[in-house]
Amino acid sequence: MDSNANPERSSTTSMNSNPQFRTPRAPQPHHGSAAGIGDISVALTIFLGFVAIIFAYPLLSGYSILHQVPEGHVGAYWRGGALLETLTNPGFRLKLPVLTHFEPIQVTIQTDLVKDIPCGTKGGVMITFDKIEVVNRLRKEYVYETLLNYGVNYDKTWIYDKIHHEINQFCSSHTLQQVYIDIFDQIDEKMKEALQHDCTRYAPGIEIISVRITKPNIPPSIKRNFEQMEEERTKVLIAVERQKVAEKESETAKKMAISEAEKNAQVSKILMEQKLMEKDSERKQEEIENLMYIAREKSLADANFYKVTKEAEANKLKLTPQYLELKFIEAIANNSKIFFGNKVPNMVFDQRLLGNFLQDVVRNGVTDAK
After folding, report:
1. How far is the C-alpha of 103 from the C-alpha of 93, rounded, in Å?
2. Signal sequence span per UniProt (predicted)?
């Protein structure tokens, strides 16, 4: 029942299952795989082309038109072996292949290293300088003239060979002691001056900036002698320094002693001046007191003299005969002795005689005063 329900479906299915009745289908194109293979081939071809150019460029550079001038250089050209005056700046440039030869010439600062330079000293000792560094520069405006006269390897003539010559000249005129120790610090400057002098005269485009020379190698036995000598010199220097320290300490102690003595002297001087000032003050005080005493005594003497003088003047006025007679009588009256007898003692004079005597005395005193 179910198999007969859809006779069309059943017949169609049987026709399709039979290979004789299958409908042919159109082939579908595969775009993705073919495009991928083509792109890889192109990229590989380009890569191999660049690799070939890179490896073949050094071999074919003389035959190429395009070339590069590095930074810090200028391009110099030779045509048929003759140097051209044309110089090019850094960058890509063009030239005639085969006919024109190109060389980059450095115009910035460069260092030339000269190694193993033997020389003999004045005393006949052979020494060797391991390396000498020469810092130099070729000025751009002198490139053509320098290349014309000395070629691309101009530094071999004026630096490498010249260093050998100057070092030998220097060693031959100095002893090992001078080269190795005494004037070793001057060799750099002397070499620089010697190189620059000849370059200025014959190759003015070459500028010597500096020269650095390492310590030379000397025979081991002589080197040991120098080391021993340096040890002895070090000992001497140590002894000298110790002596200087001792002298400084002694000088410091001396200065301290002098300073202390000067301080004591200053103190003593100040104390002495203080005592002198005190003594001077006492002396002045005593002088003032003496003057005061003299003035006081003089004043007392003057007063006493004045008193005595006035008393004398007063006595002169008092010494009259009458006054003297009165005093005589008073003296007799005051006498407590009583005399008994027929005669009175001789001391009793007649009052008149006594008065005449006293008048004569007063008169004589006045005459003497005049």
Report:
1. 12
2. none
User: What is the reported pLDDT for 335?
Assistant: 62
pTM of the shown model? 0.49
Residue 327: pLDDT band with limits 50, 70, 90? confident
Residues sharing a CB contact under 8 Å with residue 339, sequence separation 6 or more, in sequence order = 345
Tens of pLDDT along 44-53?
A: 777 665 555 5
Determine the distance from the C-alpha atom of residue 17 to the mean position of all C-alpha atoms in its chain, rounded to a whole number. 112
Q: What is the 3 state secondary structure string of the chain?
A: CCCCCCHHHHHHHHHHHCHHHCCCCCCCCCHHHHHHHHHHHHHHHHHHHHHHHHHHHHHHHHHCCEEEECCCEEEEEEECCEEEEEEECCEEEECCCCCEEEEEEECCCEEEEEEEEEEECCCCCEEEEEEEEEEEEECHHHHHHHHHHHCCCHHHHHHHHHHHHHHHHHHHCCCHHHHHHHCHHHHHHHHHHHHHHHHHHHCCCEEEEEEEECCCECCHHHHHHHHHHHHHHHHHHHHHHHHHHHHHHHHHHHHHHHHHHHHHHHHHHHHHHHHHHHHHHHHHHHHHHHHHHHHHHHHHHHHHHHHHHHHHHHHHHHCCHHHHHHHHHHHHHCCCCCCCCCCCCCCCCCHHHHHHHHHHHHHHHHHHHC
How far is Cα 211 from Cα 69, in angstroms, rounded to an integer? 29
Task: Determine the pLDDT at residue 220.
Answer: 87
Q: What percent of the chain has pLDDT over 70?
A: 74
Q: Between residues 247 and 37, which one has the greater pLDDT?
A: 247
Q: How far is CA 101 from CA 59, 60, 77, 270, in A?
A: 14, 12, 6, 101
CB hemisphere CA count around 341 (13 angstroms): 6
User: Which residues does residue 69 pair with via DSSP β-bridges, in sequence order?
Assistant: 91
Q: pLDDT tens digits for 218-274?
A: 888 888 887 888 788 888 989 999 999 999 999 999 999 999 999 899 998 899 999
**Alpha-carbon distances, residue 352 vs 164, 188, 358, 366 (angstroms):** 162, 150, 10, 21
Nearest to 118, CA basis, from 216, 225, 20 = 216
Backbone angles phi, psi at 221, to 5 degrees: -65, -45
